[in-house]
Amino acid sequence: FSLFLEGGGMAPLAAMIPPPPPAHLSMRAEIEWLAGSADNARGVALALSSSLFIGASFIIKKKGLLMSVEKGGSSASAGGFSYLRQPVWWLGMLTMIGGESANFIAYAYAPAILVTPLGAATIAASAVFARFFLGEDMHICGIAGILLCTVGTVVLVRFAPEEAPVTSVEEVWSMAMQPVFRAYVCFVLSFTLALVYGAAPKYGKTHVVVYVAICSMIGSLSVMALRGIGIAAKLTMRGSDQLRKRETLFFILWVGCCIATQMNYLNKALDTFNTTMVSSVYYVFFTVCTVTASMIMYKDWENQTPGSIFWQVVALLVNVAGVHILSGTRDSAPGCRAGLRALLSRRKSEEKPEYTHLCACDDDAEQQQQQQQ
Length: 373
Prior knowledge:
By secondary structure, the chain is mostly helical. The protein contains 16 helices and no strands.
């Protein structure tokens, strides 16, 4: 608004809009122009591929969890691990590993503030896949949500910041040892322990935010370490061996612990709540936590112009709006008016929420299993 008022009109905002690309560019050159650099373009391509794989993994793993309960196994929300005997669940796990691997490589080429919000494509993909493979309905307003996610992604890619040059993994370690980032890590760990031992046993099955918050906050720490590993791998490929250093080994160990925690509570969330609800809420929380951690540790906005920061925030808000529309209209009545009422109404729906129905089904299945035994 200060830019708008000082300029006396729309001219300052118009000045922040970049010129169109030069004519007669190849497809690869156009992508590099849109992303701002060749490294950013590689990061974007890897991040979008990762989103498709991860979106599909949500559906495959959900299918494996449902098959496990149908065969008399204990649900993941009740602390059971019978889904580990389902090949379908392992197929979903392998798909997620493939997607996360692409995402890991993306962090080596592009900053987290660019890679993480591109996870909106995961929401759109999972909504479409859930419609065809799980029979979950997608509201007509969901199409508008997918379009908003697409627009937000394009804007974010266009105004993405350049990654600050890093010459060794020791530099990444020094960033992690900053007092402000250490305070952030202490806050995340303390709050996560409070959720795990305080909120999760009481409210985990009725409030999706509990499990998702645990995954998101721990996930933000894993992304910071993943980016350090990615930078070490990239520098090693360029001739400077960084993989054998103790800082890199610590990052690898830290990522392993974080991912194990994320997978445990993500399985609980998927087994208890609707797939679209979990993926959309997870996107918002995970993006906010990761962008915050990246700004603290890597200082992504330190050398950015006000115009670039403005459009990055706009793109992030557009993605969040698209995700909210996808999830907010999930269980509303058909039609655009009904969808708008569902998004704008503050009153709780009188209908029984789907997650309560899923929990009731799990309880009935477990009771039947006990009776048979």
